[in-house]
Amino acid sequence: MGAPKKSAVRVSEDTDELVRVPLQAILLADSFTTKFRPITLQRPKVLLPLLNVPMINYTLMWLESAGVEEVFVFCCAHSKQVISYLEKTQWLSQPNFTVTTIESHNCVSAGDALRLIYERNVIHGDFVLISGDTISNMSLTEALREHKERKKKDSNAVMTMVIKRSKPNPAIRQSRLGTDELFMAIDPDTKQLLYYEDKADHSKAILHLEKSLLADNPSLSLHHDKQDCYIDICSPEVLSLFTDNFDYQHVRRHFVKGLLVDDLMGYKIFVHEIYSDYAARIDNFRSYDTVSKDIIHRWTYPLVPDVMNFGNTATKLERQGMYRASEISQSQSAVIGPFTSIGFGTKIGNNTKISSSVVGEGCKIGSNVYIEGCYIWDNVIIEDGCKLRNAVVCDGVTMKSGAVLEPGVILSFKVVVGQGFVVPCYSKVSLLQQPVEEDSDEELEYADSTSAITSKVDTSDEEVASQVLDTQLHSASELGVGGVGYIWSKCEGGHEEEWRHSVAPIPADKISEAMKIMEDELELTYDGSILPPSGELKPDCNDSEDDDNEDSRDDTYFEKEVEATFLRAAQENIQEAHLILEVNSLKLSYNKVAADCAGAVFYALVKYALDTPHSSADSLLQNVKDILRKWKNVLRPYLTDIDDQIEVILKFEEMCSESAKAFAPLFTSILHFMYEEDIVEEDAILNWDDEKKDADDSDKVFVKQAQGLIEWLRNASEEDDDDEEE
Amino acid sequence: MPDVQSLVNDFVNQLKTRKIEGSQATAKQTAEFIRSVISQQRVPHTNQAATLINAVRDVGEQLIAANPVELAVGNVVRRVLHIIREEDHSLTTAAVAGLGLTAASDDENDVDRDDHPVLSAAVVAAAARSTLRPPSLQTLLEDMPDSAAIPPTSSSGGESEGKSRSMDKGSIGRKLKHDVIEAVNELIQDIATCYDQIAEQAVEHIHQNEVILTLGSSKTVLEFLCAAKEKKRSFKVIVAEGAPRYQGHLLAKELAARGLQTTLITDSAIFAMISRVNMVIVGAHAVMANGGVIAPVGLNMVALAAQRHAVPFVVLAGSHKLCPLYPHNPEVLLNELRSPSELLDFGEFSDCMDSASGAGSLHVVNPTFDYVPPKFVSLFITDTGGHNPSYMYKLIADYYSADDLVVKRRAVTGN
């Protein structure tokens, strides 16, 4: 027993030496963004429930268990709500963990908040900078030790960022948490952060690194599979830096990038990577969904519902990841699927199905309701026969019977959805009207509008109530019969792509679309003979089928180009030689062979014939003959080989069956004409026939049609042969 | 009281965040904590025992709720409650005996015991009274000195109590608290020394040239094996690594450092190795009243393998691990699922868990405990000696009072 005691004593001595001041933390209880609107108009983000527990509890609990002794909670929007919530909970009365609130109404960004805290002069040593929506179970000791050691050696090492490995989705270039792909350059030896880019220009798939970066650092590793946990260990200098640079607003966008670019002051930022621990920030609805699922899957242990036991109601974990609080009344016939959490006192009716969802406290769910992947908060009433998929439903919402929520819907507080009404995908519904001023400078605007709205909400519930009455009068139609609330217009605040940040899974077509775009990008980079910036950008699964796709797409481009060139030539009477030259250059730039050109030119000719006005099939045939006769010299250079000629026949066949059905009855006569004009040789036609022997009947339509011609050719050739033999 | 409450919150937090781990450490710290609660509790003149019991219950309920999986917390709370009852009773009987069979003895001192007639209380011997059932052989043997020691106190203390009752109430109160704290100290001592007590019996069980198999790491097992080694027994130990926490690696290192011939195997090789093993010795997380064992994950598999080859399966458990509950009891949460990060690296597999792109189909389950039914256990070795599984309920009845089995319900009615 002696040994462990001794070591414990030694450890505490060590920490005493290192930390003369208690470890402090700044918790920003405001994210200064608008991603969670319209919900955040009425309740601050940090108080939004995550598995029925307000988020800020997770953050505080982690800070407490990580050994932080003093936390300053900075409240801005809805500060009253945050403070009164903290007063209600036990956080303000912990013996070894002091929580102090700092209130401000005129801060519009994290930068302002940090400047204000600097003025208060409350931070005396290293501190942890975190926002109130960060979930983690990491141990700080190692990161702190590294930070302090670096600080001893180099006083310019002002900040340590915590990062974690997490692969971004290769198709849509965003992480699991719905944030954009993040590129970082890190010195592998010292772990110094050299480059940070979270808004990389995907359209070009090119990153620009300063030349000096490569010159100054002997080694450098570029990562794009790291996730920024938004947990920073900062030295007190960080606060003064914010004060010196009064234009720093955003911690990442301005401060981190500012320090990285600025070589005058020589401040350095380092990273600390965590492996087995969990850390993530809830930045948007997508990450809300992802982090909730991670908690249900217990990655955040011990911050999981059955262990945390926050509040007074114990939650128990049952088989297959079902978390159930006490006093749930559930019908025998109701089916509650795996990875679901049901809150205290919720009632569930007959034949209701709930899967991978979170249901809050005191909800009433009727019969035959179908709920999948939803986040339903407290005191929600869902009547019989409703269907909800991948939606967020806030406190006090009522869904009348038969209402349907399509994926990605957000229903803010106390909204009523009318009977049988279908709320379309990705809609955001609130009792409050959508604020109008949105565009110019988002951050500044945001603060103004929030504070205005906040005060409105805070001051008078009656006003909201009267608004509600208004709503009932005005927009009864907007949410069906008896519905209350406004559907916000979709293109809001530059969220051009809602599916990126929604709780709903990304639709399959979006993924495939993104895959295509990515391939196109790759193609462009190859065509421009620029190597892709890193091997990682190339998808691993670039197999033959993708190549096929590329080829076919390429073909159509090429064909269009050739067709356009030909039309111009036909209209402007350009010389044949010039046209051939142009087609040749296209052939080179698209990396095509003669057969492709033959096909394309032929296609252009026939298309031209088709587009020339004609009254009947006969006149069309005449058109084709005229045009072919006139332009056959253009075709000729590409028809040196039998294969090229077969290509032309195949092309023609394809056209007859697909794009230009008018030619179908004329197939044989045109083929015969082409034979007569020496565009195609006898052998080509016979080979084509041979090739088609094994094909399906559907492919043989034209072979049969041309049977007479083929027979005649065969006989002729046999006769020739016979002649030769004789 | 606010002081106590904030202390409780602090301790509850430590339990919640799983900062205190391992049943021995938990038991010890819980006992120490309850001792401080008792010593801070102000005792009124009347009804001291009930006050103490309520105080301990209130705190105990919160502690148990903080970590329902760690049964040692509940065990210690119940042990302390039992101690209070016993001490109170021995004092009351002493007082009653001193006063003789006068009618005045029917006073408030006995409120706590009013379900028992005074007469019978006076008649029943102190040792036998602690249990409401016929005395077991062990209690008879163990409690002999106690019952012998009681008569002198009753005769000596009885004189003064008879003279001035106002004074003796206070002294009884102080004495009760004092006695309880003394007894809790003993309990803490017991918990601290349970390793030694168990290890003392090692030589009786481990014989020359035997092969012992164990899984994971247990301090009790380590001490047990080392004690046998110190007694010049030479034997081999096979350690299964105990995935996913791999504490077997630590045990193997420790054993090898102490000069034991050690072989480390994977958990999956247990069945292959079991045929050459003479005895399986493992530690437990908790022993239930039916003789079933809550043990680190993987032990059920070991037990099955041992049974298949008729290898004795021996479980070492300190008395603080004996739990008076049955495993079908809904109050017992048998298992705890820990973080999947012990099994696999989040970063490497993060794309399989990206629910957004529809690939989120990978689920990881990481249970901490196994339940080994009593029929697989050949022998329990506790600090009081070796016992058959079917005997555990009796052993448990010696340590706990039947009134305390459910800590929660009584606390609610008590308030």
Automatic annotation (TrEMBL), chain A:
One of its GO terms (molecular function) is translation initiation factor activity. Component of the translation initiation factor 2B (eIF2B) complex which is a heterodecamer of two sets of five different subunits: alpha, beta, gamma, delta and epsilon. Subunits alpha, beta and delta comprise a regulatory subcomplex and subunits epsilon and gamma comprise a catalytic subcomplex. Within the complex, the hexameric regulatory complex resides at the center, with the two heterodimeric catalytic subcomplexes bound on opposite sides. The keyword Cytoplasm applies. The lineage of its organism: Eukaryota, Viridiplantae, Streptophyta, Embryophyta, Tracheophyta. Residues 542-553 have a biased composition (Acidic residues). It comes from Lupinus luteus. This is Translation initiation factor eIF2B subunit epsilon. InterPro entries: ARM-type_fold, eIF-2B_epsilon_N, eIF2B_epsilon, LbH_EIF2B3/5, NTP_transferase_dom, Nucleotide-diphossugar_trans, Trimer_LpxA-like_sf, W2_domain. It holds the Pfam family LbH_EIF2B. Residues 527-554 are annotated as: Disordered.
TrEMBL record, chain B:
Its main location: cytoplasm. The keyword Protein biosynthesis applies. It is found in: Cytoplasm, Cytosol. The keyword Protein biosynthesis applies. One of its GO terms (molecular function) is translation initiation factor activity. One of its GO terms (cellular component) is eukaryotic translation initiation factor 2B complex. Coiled coil: none annotated. Residues 143-171 are annotated as: Disordered. Keywords: Cytoplasm, Initiation factor, Protein biosynthesis. It holds the Pfam family IF-2B. It comes from the Eukaryota. Component of the translation initiation factor 2B (eIF2B) complex which is a heterodecamer of two sets of five different subunits: alpha, beta, gamma, delta and epsilon. Subunits alpha, beta and delta comprise a regulatory subcomplex and subunits epsilon and gamma comprise a catalytic subcomplex. Within the complex, the hexameric regulatory complex resides at the center, with the two heterodimeric catalytic subcomplexes bound on opposite sides. Belongs to the eIF-2B alpha/beta/delta subunits family. PANTHER family: TRANSLATION INITIATION FACTOR EIF-2B SUBUNIT BETA. This is Translation initiation factor eIF2B subunit beta. The lineage of its organism: Eukaryota, Viridiplantae, Streptophyta, Embryophyta, Tracheophyta.
